[in-house]
Design a protein that fits this description.
transmembrane beta strand; cell outer membrane; Immunoglobulin-like; 801 residues; five-stranded mixed β-sheet; Maltoporin, Chain A; Plug_dom; 2 domains; transport; siderophore uptake transmembrane transporter activity; mainly beta; 7 helices
């Protein structure tokens, strides 16, 4: 009996369960440290500490090398036995700089930045909490390395390394968000994501097609949402947060709440957010060209121009949004992990402000131009199996269904006909990924993917006087777009300070579209594309010492023609209409980049990356014909005919530079600078500046941090883009750009000075306040259709439990 009791105490007692739960603390303050990452390549395991600095490391039992790291702390490598000998308490020493950071999702597989040849950044949750971004697009802008364009307040289109829109890729919890109607013009799908429910955000710069397939030419933006947390004891783990926020520039009223509750095998997380934005006020000091002193309202059956009391108010830009998320996790044993996630986002209608600025014959071109409610829903199932077999050490299977709904509603000034075009996309995807360690120096990652998009599109027009509806042209044909791929990535580490990575992907894509010739007599009734693309990458990372990092990478990427490229009908600019082209093929990008990072005396860190991208067979808008005619009547006016064609070569080159200085007393200074030049071939062989290569831009920050306070003074800025430096297609857009002394369009330089403060009242209660654009500048980020906020006072209250 005595032996049985001893055996029970050894194997099953609560003490032993607790003894395998570590506590990670700051070596000076003894405060628990959350989000500390523990990795063991031997055990193929990866875990993170919770907000109490705790994590169950029973899966690491027997490991000789466990890497323990967190941004801002020195890396520790300990064996399981050493951790056990210290009573499962680990103390980390603060470190000014770290050249290695765990990447959770930007490369689909968990890796260190020190092993990745491409440039990858992570936007820390603390920086997001301090900056209080209103949307997920603003969240990306917090990095200082991603440029954000806006044509309406309900929007935000990132630009990365001279590329944008459907040449960039979004992922949510490892699921591809891009769909078959992602367009070449500015898009606003990223606002469907909830910044409050985002646990980590990573950006991979440059080609990502080997891992993610089509569209990943300029970069990949990876969002990891809140994860359910299992309890490491018999008690239920409950945690969460509540956030409220007010901003003065648009009278923002926001509330968010999330809660996590978990047991040993089951865990849940529930999240809900709601935003309410009024019309946005722009600054009082800047170009008069950005002022719009009127708006259109309908009185007694007639459109009338109404003069605004305050010309700084951009009317209409108001909108509301709500987001919901529910996740469930089930971990029956140490080998299996099942996670299901549900996401839902819906906006109200919101005005397309730049279109409402257009003037025709001295009057507003439109009385209405707005997007209908933008809806996004995703169901995804993620199954992970960890077990050492001949074929893999870890298997991940992702199955997802997304549904996208959007619409465009417009009516010309003094016209009784309102045009409504609505789109719906059902996107299905399945991924299976494997990781296999081959000895001590090599790891192979491989997998396969299947994607199917069904596109529904319809058009109708409403007579606002009679209320009668009639059919009208749809924006897209009824279509299906599918993609099938296999891919592999190989990592070889001949030594601790040198890594080589290479990858290949073969992607086959299919498109079927049926055109309705009721309204336009196209010389075709269907489009069928059946083609493939082979892409690859090869790169290396070398660490001459602990304070040096050198990386070089060559990669190719592609973008397969989608339904938006092949089949849409829309007014691209005043007096022009784009018609379908069923004869498109994929465009290819070839990218070279090299980066160097160096830490000097644990005081100064510099980071420099240079890159060059060549885009061949680029899909661009070109003049065309329909049934032998170079112009047709579209939306009531004579319009020249254009189509998307594989008709250009484009190239982008530039540098990304960053500097950070750590001073004593919790003060640090950092700066990011981005310079890019883009050129695109025109029909006549001449070159035009690329539309999506932003002017030089950057951010400089001065921070002070103490135990309870975090204060930041910072400046955002952009260089001027002269008229001759604008893309040829942009030069006539007087509704977007300012006018110089010669009456030509240009994008003026601008800067803002800003202040943010975070104060921790109690362990779980904090106050964030800020003043953005202190000098009340009136400015427009390059290519934007509306001005940015003027002086903006922000206050938010955050409670964690």
């Amino acid at each position: 009996m005595r032996n049985i009791i001893l055996l029970y105490m050894f194997l099953g007692s609560p003490f032993m369960v607790y003894s395998q739960t570590i506590m990670v603390k700051d070596d000076k303050t003894s405060e628990p440290i959350e989000m500390v990452t523990l990795i063991s390549e031997e055990m193929k395991e990866f875990i993170s500490t919770d907000k109490h600095g705790k994590a169950d490391i029973s899966a690491f039992s027997g490991a000789q090398k466990i890497q323990i790291q967190r941004l801002g702390y020195q890396l520790k490598i300990l064996s399981y036995e050493k951790i056990k000998a210290s009573d499962f308490i680990i103390e980390l020493k603060a470190n000014n700089f770290n050249l290695n950071e765990v990447i959770v999702s930007a490369t689909r597989w968990r890796q260190n930045t020190g092993d990745i040849p491409s440039k990858v950044i992570s936007i820390s949750p603390k920086e997001v909490a301090l900056q209080n971004p209103q949307t997920a697009a603003d969240l990306l802008g917090v990095s200082g390395k991603v440029y954000i364009q806006k044509s309406q307040q309900g929007g935000g289109s990132p630009m990365i390394r001279g590329f944008a829109t459907n040449r960039l890729l979004y992922t949510v919890d490892g699921i591809r968000m891009n769909n078959a109607i992602f367009r070449g013009g500015n898009i606003q799908n990223v606002i469907s994501l909830d910044p409050f429910a985002t646990e980590n955000t990573e950006v991979l710069f440059g080609p990502g097609s080997v891992i993610y397939g089509s569209d990943a030419i300029g970069g990949v933006m990876s969002f990891q949402t809140l994860s359910p947390e299992l309890s490491d004891s018999d008690e239920v783990l409950i945690s969460g947060k509540v956030n409220t926020r007010f901003s003065s520039a648009n009278n923002e009223k926001t509330i968010h709440a999330d809660i996590k509750y978990g047991w040993k095998k089951w865990a849940f997380v529930t999240s809900a957010s709601r935003w309410d934005y009024d019309h946005l006020r722009q600054g009082s000091n800047g170009p008069e060209d950005y002022l719009k002193t009127y708006y259109v309202e309908r009185f007694e059956g007639e459109d009338r121009i109404v003069e605004q009391d305050d010309p700084l108010i951009q009317n209409p830009t108001a909108y509301t949004q709500k987001n919901l998320m529910q996740k469930v996790r089930f971990e029956p044993n140490e080998n299996w992990d099942f996670q299901y996630g549900f996401h839902y986002s819906e906006t109200s209608d919101y005005g397309r402000y730049d279109r409402l600025n257009r003037v025709s014959n001295g009057e507003p071109r439109y009385a209405e131009w707005k997007y209908g409610p933008q809806k996004w829903m995703m169901n995804n199932l993620n199954i992970t199996h960890s077990e050492e077999t001949r074929a893999f050490d870890q298997l991940s299977f992702r199955l997802a269904h997304q549904q996208f709904e959007e619409s465009r509603i417009d009516r010309s000034f003094q016209d009784e006909i309102r045009r409504i075009r609505a789109e719906k996309v059902d996107a299905y995807s399945a991924n299976i990924d494997f990781v296999k360690k081959l000895g001590e120096k090599s790891t192979v990652f491989y997998g396969s993917e299947y994607i199917l998009n069904n596109v529904e599109s319809n058009g109708k027009q409403e007579n606002i006087l009679t209320g009668n509806f009639a059919n009208s042209p749809s924006r897209y044909p009824e279509s299906t777009w599918s993609s099938m791929a296999v891919y592999t990535n190989y990592e070889f580490k001949p030594s601790d300070n040198f890594t080589i990575q290479g990858g290949l992907r073969y992607n086959h894509f299919l498109l079927n579209a049926e055109f309705d010739t009721t309204f336009y007599s196209f010389p075709f009734t269907e489009a069928y594309i059946n083609n493939g693309a082979l892409t690859g990458s090869l790169g290396m990372v070398y660490h001459p010492g602990d304070s040096w990092s050198v990386n070089a990478n060559f990669g190719t990427a592609f973008r397969a023609p989608n339904v938006d490229d092949v089949g849409k009908i829309f007014d691209s600019e005043p007096g022009a209409v784009v018609i379908p082209n069923p004869n498109l093929t994929a465009e290819y990008a070839y990218n070279w980049d090299i980066g160097i990072a160096k830490v000097f005396n644990d005081f100064l860190k510099v980071d420099f990356t240079a890159y060059y991208t060549l885009l061949n067979n680029a899909m661009v808008r070109r003049d065309s014909q329909l049934n032998g005619q170079d112009s047709i009547i579209f939306d009531g006016e004579q319009s020249k005919v254009q189509s998307i064609q594989n008709a250009a070569v484009a190239n982008v080159y530039g540098v990304q530079a960053a500097m950070e200085i750590k001073f004593p007393g919790g003060i640090n200074l950092s700066s990011d600078l981005n310079y890019q030049i883009g050129e695109e071939e025109l029909d006549d062989g001449s070159l035009s500046p690329s539309r999506h290569a932003a002017p030089m831009f950057g951010t400089t920050r001065l921070n002070f941090k103490s135990k309870d306070w975090l204060v930041q003074l910072y400046a955002n800025y952009q260089a001027e883009r002269q008229h001759s430096e604008l893309a040829v297609e942009e030069r006539g857009k007087t509704e977007i750009y300012a006018l110089n002394e010669n009456g030509n369009t240009y994008a003026p330089a601008w800067y803002t000075l800003n202040f943010k403060l975070s104060y921790q009242f109690l362990q779980d209660l904090s106050l964030n306040v800020g003043i953005e654009n202190i000098t009340d500048q009136r400015y427009r980020p390059y290519s934007s259709g509306m001005s940015a906020p003027g002086r903006n006072y922000i206050m938010s209250l955050n409670f964690k439990f």
